[in-house]
Design brief:
single chain
Length: about 150
Amino acid sequence: MDAGLVEVAKEERVDHFIETYYRATAEVFEFHHGELSSGQNEKQIRESLNALATLGFNVTADRDSLAEMVKLYGRMHGVGLQPELEEKISQLDDVGFHAKQGVAKLAQLLTMSDRQFDAMQADERQLRRLLTSGPAKPVQKPRRKKT
C-alpha cells in the first residue's frame, strides 16, 4: 500500500475479525528496470503510433522509418541523466509519479551539455519529420455554432 499500487476497496467485520479487501489503483502497471532494449523501444513506438490512430492521426511507419524512430528514441532518452540521479528521483517520497517524470526531464535538461542538447533537438526534429512525412491528419473537431 505504501507504493500506491493498491487501495482498500472495503472492510467488513466477520465475527471478531476485520476483513479488508484491496483493489489495484490502475488497470495496468508497467515496470522497467534499466534501459529498454531496441525490441522494447520498437514495441513502445508501435503502441504509441497505434494510440495516435485512435486520436485521429493517420501515422504509418514502414520498417525503415520504425527502425530510425527506435534509434532516435534510444539516443534522445539516453542523454544527460545519470543512473544515480534517476535512482534519487525514484526515491522522492513526497513527489507523485507524473511529477517525477517532470523532474527527470528537467534534470536531464540541466545535466546535458549544449552539444548534447543540440543533438537531442536534431533527433527530435528528425523524429517529427518521420511522423509528418506520411499522411498525418489530426482529428477535426466540429465547430460550435454561435448562439
